[in-house]
Design a protein that fits this description.
five-stranded antiparallel sheet; eight-stranded mixed sheet; alpha+beta
């Protein structure tokens, strides 16, 4: 090129940005053609237009006022083709002064004004985005390269500094423009609140006005259900619950609607005597409705995160790549369910599938792994990379792979994809995820998302390993590269008969060969320790999904018995008693219940939980007074405190 290059907009385009706009294979193909014996001839006109003439006769051109997505090409492709990609890469090679990929890493998408957003996306998009902002929406802002915003139903990445054309989102074409506008507004608010924090969770809203009517009605309904009790729920009350959930769903008050829907499912399970019913779960859900209603009126908490306001139930996503992290099997009396864990755009998501079992004890483990899903087996899906154009993402991070004759789903080898996961998903230091868990508010007021703490851990050493035949539980203490400790723990389940042996083999590789192994799992804290429920392990480039492993007969390490913890015993006893009361109903409590309540309170006080004990005493006294109007409030207060303790046990 004779003229001095003047296309700084092309200089800053990175290979990662081009891959995000298309795919890795197309970019690599363009690079190979540039390296061939007949590369394209790239030239630049005085007006700044860059042209690439290819040996196959095609010509691609990009005017000075056009973004790369608007480039012309004679090949006829309506989207970015290898010729348009090769034009950018060829220009950069000829210019020989491509800026470093980290240039502009300190920029913020907050720089885009509403006028620029309207000029790029149009008035209709701005109106749709404003409706979302008026309702309020939660967002997680991640600063870095690239700047990223995680919305409940999509993720937006700003790949190139100061260029809206390179804002990538996994939402489909219809919704992508709105999500980019919402992401810019999220960055704008985050920069105003705290411009220096790497990760910030915020609520974006255009008004402080709050309609408390939906939450108040839900709380009143929870109180009515508590007074009635599960055993006395009538069809009228059940219908009222169903209508309330439908109204909240229509108004996109997502988490409160999901909570009421779960309650309705529990009551239906009780009437049909289904194994999915749990009186503990009913008590948790009733307390959750009350807790979300109380927390939503607090100015210190994020209403959108607590209630899920303004969140669409589902969003169709465009071409996306998913990295599998394993799967988990569960079994009830009439069905086997599988949950496959995957990562898309640094967000963990799940796919659910269920099959009736018809009392077949052999329908477990590797047999379930052989079931077909999305054109492949369940086991392969849980251990591969998936590229799909036919997926729907739900607000709770559930994912559906839909059938389509046009939009395809491809399942590819996983390779070493776990090693390139973002730092907040692949942990080489256990203390980081432990701090993340402890910094979260209680589960009953957090967003109701799935796979919240599914992570990949680099395990460098097995400190100890033991198996308890009575509990059928395998526990291993492991260490990271910095000697941080965590417990890998799992119990035998008939639906996954080979899981414990497969876990033992993976841990033995670390112990015998002294080499680190990546292990995926669901993290939580208990008794001040990080506990990981294992899903899969990467051995070399092969992923072993534990629940799909064949059943084998092998010697597990010797066991040691752990004496029961009096703290556990007292807290779980209180939870059980409160759940039984919710099951029978406050208006139908049996005689002597007050004595049991006060006894549980004394046990809690003996192990140091004085405030929770006081709340239980207050509840017991309210049942014995002539005026029991305040009894539900005292039950909610005591149950919320007990649930908060159970979460940290």
């Amino acid at each position: 090129m004779a003229e001095k290059p003047c296309r700084s907009d092309l200089d800053i385009i990175t290979e990662a940005a081009l891959i995000g706009l298309t795919n890795k294979g197309l970019v690599k193909r363009a690079q190979r053609e540039l390296d061939s014996e007949t590369p394209p001839v790239v030239s630049q006109a005085p007006d700044g237009t860059v042209t690439a003439r290819w040996h196959d006769g095609n010509v691609s051109a990009l005017a000075a006022d056009q973004a790369v997505t608007q480039a012309d090409c004679t090949c006829g492709a309506t989207t970015l083709c290898r010729h348009r990609i090769g034009l950018v890469l060829g220009y950069q090679r000829a210019a020989q002064d491509t800026e470093d990929a980290t240039a502009g890493s300190d920029w913020s998408p907050a720089m885009f004004t509403d006028a620029e957003l309207a000029a790029t996306f149009g008035a209709a998009t701005m109106k749709a985005a404003e409706r979302r902002r008026a309702a309020g929406y939660p967002a997680t802002v991640r600063r870095g390269q690239p700047p990223t915003v995680e919305l409940t139903s999509s993720t937006v990445r700003f790949m190139i500094p100061e260029h809206l054309d390179f804002a990538l989102t996994d939402a489909d074409k219809q919704a992508s423009a709105v999500t980019v506008v919402l992401a810019v507004w999220a960055f704008r608010l985050a920069d105003a609140i705290d411009p220096g924090t790497t990760r910030l969770e915020i609520e974006v809203a255009s008004t402080a006005d709050r309609d408390e009517k939906p939450t108040a009605e839900a709380c009143d309904l929870a109180t009515e259900l508590l007074r009635s009790g599960t055993v006395n729920v009538t069809d009228v009350l059940s219908g009222k619950l169903d209508r309330a959930a439908a109204d909240l769903d229509r108004d996109n008050i997502r988490w409160l609607a999901d909570t009421l829907q779960d309650l309705h499912t529990q009551f239906s399970a009780y009437r049909t005597r289904h194994a999915a019913f749990s009186d503990l779960r009913v008590a948790e859900l009733l307390a959750e409705v009350h807790a979300r209603g109380l927390a939503s009126s607090s100015p210190r908490l994020t209403r959108a995160q607590i209630l899920g306001t303004g969140e669409k139930a589902s969003t169709r996503i465009r071409l996306t790549r998913l990295t599998a992290l394993g799967a988990r099997l569960t079994r009830t009396d009439d069905a086997v369910s599988a949950t496959v864990y995957l990562v898309s755009d640094s967000i963990p998501m799940v796919i659910h599938r269920s099959w009736p079992v018809d009392d077949d004890p052999g329908f477990a483990g590797e047999v379930v792994g052989g079931r077909r899903i999305a054109g492949t087996t369940l086991e392969r899906l849980a251990s591969s990379s998936v590229v799909t154009e036919s997926a729907v993402r739900h607000a709770n991070r559930g994912l559906e792979l839909t059938r389509s004759a046009v939009a395809k789903t491809s399942v590819l080898p996983l390779g070493r994809a776990w090693e390139s996961l973002p730092n907040h998903l692949a942990h080489h230091e256990f203390s980081l995820v432990e701090r993340e868990i402890t910094s979260q508010p209680p589960r009953f007021v957090r967003p109701r998302i799935e796979a919240e703490f599914v992570r990949v851990f680099a395990v460098h050493r097995v400190v100890s390993m033991s198996y308890s035949p009575g509990a059928q539980r395998l526990v291993a203490e492991v260490a990271d590269a910095h000697d941080g400790r965590a417990l890998i723990a799992d119990e035998y389940r008939s639906v996954a008969p080979g899981a414990l042996d497969a876990l033992h083999r993976a841990l033995s590789v670390i112990r015998e060969q002294a080499q680190p192994v990546f292990l995926s799992g669901i993290a939580r804290r208990s008794h001040g320790r990080l506990i990981v429920e294992p899903l899969a392990a990467m051995l070399d480039t092969e992923v072993s999904v534990f629940d799909f492993a064949p059943a084998t007969t092998g010697a597990l390490p010797e066991h040691h018995d752990v004496p029961p913890d009096p703290l556990d015993r007292s807290v779980l006893a209180a939870q059980s008693l409160l759940s039984q009361i919710a099951h029978t109903g406050l208006d139908h409590c049996a005689g002597g219940i007050q004595q049991q309540i006060h006894s549980c309170a004394n046990d809690l006080a003996a192990v140091g939980f004085h405030r929770t004990a006081s709340a239980l005493h207050q509840f017991g006294k309210s049942l014995g007074s002539g005026d029991s109007i305040k009894a539900p409030d005292h039950w909610f207060a005591a149950t919320i405190r007990v649930l908060a303790i159970v979460e940290q046990l």
